[in-house]
Amino acid sequence: MLIIGIAGGTGCGKTTVVNHIINELPENEVCVISQDSYYKDTSHLSYDERVKINFDHPQSIDFELLCTHLKALKEGKTIEQPVYSFVEHNRTKETVPTSPSKVIIVEGILILTNPHIREMLDIKIYVHADSDERLIRRLKRDIAERGRDMQEVLERYQTTLKPMHQQFIDPTKEYADLIIPNNNYNNVAVDIVRTIIKERLD
């Protein structure tokens, strides 16, 4: 089993990189674990209280559960991956059965901030994109997919996203085995990752 971590700031293009890697592998040989699924359960809080949570701080992630699930997958066990609702700012009661596979991709902005997660990753990738480009992508995504309005996204970017990126996310580049510049799609970098994966699996 090969566990790959893909990190980078919000809107940097992690999902695009993940998808291009997945497309190069047989469907039954890869699964994706999203950090977003592991936001802590906040059912005990009201909606208004949940909205105020700093979701870009490492403390918002249930890293303990994520570690437990990764260990279970390495042991050949199927896990129940949580399902998170960005509309409700909380986990749902649903889970997704996730079986072990040859390649596991763990992706999320904060995954390289946790030393226990880093130790479990065979390859650590950081996707880098210009801050203006990341803001534009975040605006488009949050408005189209997560029911946010422009003012809310911009305010959150200035008060939370940008300072958290500078404090926690950007410094994790030092842990990366590979940094992929992603202002435009980077064919060479993804080809390198694909080659590494095939060599490790063989």
Give an overview in words:
The strands form two sheets. The protein has a five-stranded parallel sheet with strand order 2-5-1-6-7, covered by helices on one side. The protein has a two-stranded antiparallel ribbon with strand order 3-4. The radius of gyration is 17 Å and the shape is globular. The chain is 41% helix and 21% strand. The protein has helices at residues 14-23, 47-51, 63-74, 115-120, 131-145, 150-169, 187-201; strands at 2-7, 30-34, 79-85, 90-98, 103-107, 123-128, 178-181. Strand 3 and strand 4 form a beta hairpin. The model has no long low-confidence stretch (mean pLDDT 86). The longest helix is centred in the C-terminal third of the chain and has 20 residues, at 150-169. The protein is built from seven helices and seven strands. It starts with a strand and ends with a helix. Helix 5 crosses helix 6 (150-169). It is an alpha/beta fold and 202 residues long.
Layout of helices and strands:
Layout: E1 2-7, H1 14-23, E2 30-34, H2 47-51, H3 63-74, E3 79-85, E4 90-98, E5 103-107, H4 115-120, E6 123-128, H5 131-145, H6 150-169, E7 178-181, H7 187-201
Parallel strand pairs: 1-5, 1-6, 2-5, 6-7
Antiparallel strand pairs: 3-4
Radius of gyration: 17 Å
**Backbone structural class:** alpha/beta
| Percent helix range | 40-55%
How many helices does DSSP assign?
7
Contiguous runs where pLDDT drops below 50 for at least 5 residues? none
Morphology call: globular
Order of helices and strands: EHEHHEEEHEHHEH
Query: How far apart are the first and last residues' alpha carbons, in Å?
Result: 11 Å
Please report which band the strand proportion falls in: under 5%, 5-15%, 15-25%, 25-35%, 35-45% or over 45%.
Answer: 15-25%
Name the strands of the widest sheet in spatial order. 2-5-1-6-7
Mean pLDDT, to the nearest integer, reads 86
